[in-house]
Design a protein that fits this description.
The protein is an alpha+beta fold and about 300 residues long. It has helices spanning about 15-20, 70-80, 105-115, 145-150, 160-170, 190-195, 205-215, and strands at about 1-5, 5-15, 35-45, 50-55, 60-65, 90, 95-100, 120-125, 135-140, 220-230, 240, 245-255, 260-270, 280, 285-295. The protein contains 7 helices and 15 strands. Helix 3 packs across helix 4. It is globular, with a radius of gyration of 20 Å.
Length: about 300
């Protein structure tokens, strides 16, 4: 169980909310039914990322789970784009807590805990970072009691730092860490999860379509995994080199308990993005050999 203090929540209400969001976001949010969710990006007209988010359709509103530090600014930006639509955007971050329950027993633990507490505002079943998981959106005042009920039901509370190791093993880029306002989603490998190529128009679509179809998906740089020696100590912003050539930078790094070695995410020039490509990472203490790896580093886990 992890209390997600790093996540904020926007609420969108009104009869036109899904149609309006459909024209803004990269994924097919209009197809969501109550209880369903999808991952999406919000882009500039130039195809660069403003943020990523999880879109959750609740009974009476749509929840946008976003980086907490961006929630207020995103609410204001989205609100400024409303004209005649029947839709309203509010920042619920202070009143709606986010709790993740992760692991193959997530459903069973939640069912035991739910007998003790009121139902959450919304529950999302997901394969967060390749592991069966639930995300609970709960009234902030109820969050401590919900957390206690989950602990009593068999959960173990852990930290955002531990979750980050799981994230990196799953090869999932994090916005404001591995992606920013300069990132095109195709560079970060988000096309399979975040982009619908069959929906109607959305902001930034022209750039995405042009790169995908006319450019055959070729972008200048690509997010890759890196396998490093056990003794290496990679950090974000470490340079990635091929011989004397600087070809990219590390964005995230961690010790992988599953692989028992150091792993990292980083961007490299597209010519060096093929799994198995040897590169060097210039750490603070030494230049160490690394190998470009197929993502995810760790195969997804199934529930049982």
């Amino acid at each position: 169980m992890i209390r997600r203090g790093d996540r904020g929540v926007l609420g969108v209400t009104g009869a036109d909310r899904l149609v309006w969001l459909q024209g803004l976001l990269t994924n097919d949010v209009s197809a969501l039914r109550p209880g369903e969710s999808c991952y999406a990006a919000y882009l500039t007209p130039q195809g660069r990322m403003i943020t990523d988010m999880r879109v959750v359709e609740a009974e009476d509103r749509t929840l946008l789970e976003v980086p907490a530090v961006l929630a207020e600014a995103l609410r204001n930006k989205l609100d400024s784009l409303l004209f005649t639509e029947d839709a309203q955007v509010s920042d619920l971050s202070a009143t709606l807590g986010v709790i993740d329950v992760i692991g193959p027993e997530a459903d069973r633990v939640f069912e035991r805990a739910r007998a003790e507490r009121p139902a959450p505002t919304a529950v999302v079943r997901d394969d967060l970072y390749g592991v069966p998981s639930l995300t609970l959106f709960v009234d902030a005042a109820e969050a401590p009691d919900v957390a206690r009920a989950l602990l009593t039901a068999g959960a173990t509370e852990t930290t955002l730092e531990t979750l980050d190791v799981l994230r990196i093993e799953a090869g999932r880029p994090l916005f404001l860490v591995d992606m920013d306002e300069h990132t095109i989603p195709l560079e970060a490998g988000l096309e399979d999860r975040a982009i619908s190529f069959t929906k109607g128009c959305y902001v930034g679509q022209e750039v995405i379509v042009r790169v995908t179809h006319r450019g055959h998906g070729r972008v200048a740089k690509k997010l890759v995994g890196l396998l490093l020696p056990k003794a290496a100590s990679p950090h974000p912003v470490d340079l990635i080199r091929s011989g004397d050539r600087e070809i990219g930078r590390v964005t995230s790094a961690a010790w992988s308990p599953a692989l028992e070695r150091q792993i990292a995410l980083g961007y490299v020039h597209r010519d060096f993005s093929e799994p198995g490509t040897p590169v060097d990472v210039q750490t603070q203490h030494a230049t160490v050999p690394a190998t470009v790896a197929l993502l995810p580093f760790v195969a997804p886990m199934s529930s049982h």
